[in-house]
Amino acid sequence: MSALLTPADRQPRCLWCAASADYIAYHDSEWGFPVDDDRRLFEKLSLEGFQSGLSWRTILTKRENFRAAFAGFDFNRVARFTEAEVERLLQDEGIVRHRGKIEAVINNAARAQALVREAGSLAAYVWSFDPKGDDIPYLASTSSVSVAMSKDLKKRGWAFVGPTTVHAFMQAMGLINDHAEGCVIRARVQRAREAFRRPG
């Protein structure tokens, strides 16, 4: 079975983005491009946690609602959320109303603050796990680097950061170029990765 989709513009893309136009837009402009912005990194880790047991399309269609609910994923603000905020979020029909996942984002915000104090930025910490050319099978669900980051985050008190969640985060944030061979975006991502200055 081909790993590629050829939509109306006749440009081959990864097959997984066939579900909808918003998937194609996400695939073309975000997925796999390297990110060093702390807020975006925290957002993605949080949303990957919410995705657990669900599809990314479900989360993507609610992303703006999540951003509004969680103060734009400013972890310095989210870390100050109280139980009243948890109860408010549990009533918010625009997001996934799962107490454990909501509480995990608030917990992880405080853990992110601690990482910034230690590493200088969340980006510096995340990119310290850059695979640096390690051979990771195409569209694997985990990797040695995602297992390592997951273990380290859990040791630091983070929640909903299993190896599969972390691997998906790494694919999305550009640590791994998992665009299929022949995908029109693969070379663009590779050029972006080569030009990217690793933080830290």
From TrEMBL:
Residues reported to bind Zn(2+): C14, H27, H179, C183
Keyword Ligase: no
EC number(s) on file: 3.2.2.20
Enzyme superclass (EC): hydrolase
Annotated Pfam families: Adenine_glyco
UniProt keyword list: Glycosidase, Hydrolase, Metal-binding, Zinc
Gene Ontology terms describing biological process: base-excision repair
Alphabetized InterPro entries for the sequence: Adenine_glyco (IPR005019), DNA-3mA_glycosylase (IPR052891), DNA_glycosylase (IPR011257)
Keyword Hydrolase: yes
GO MF: DNA-3-methyladenine glycosylase activity; metal ion binding
Protein name as it appears in the record: DNA-3-methyladenine glycosylase I
Source species: Novosphingobium hassiacum
UniProt lineage: Bacteria, Pseudomonadati, Pseudomonadota, Alphaproteobacteria, Sphingomonadales
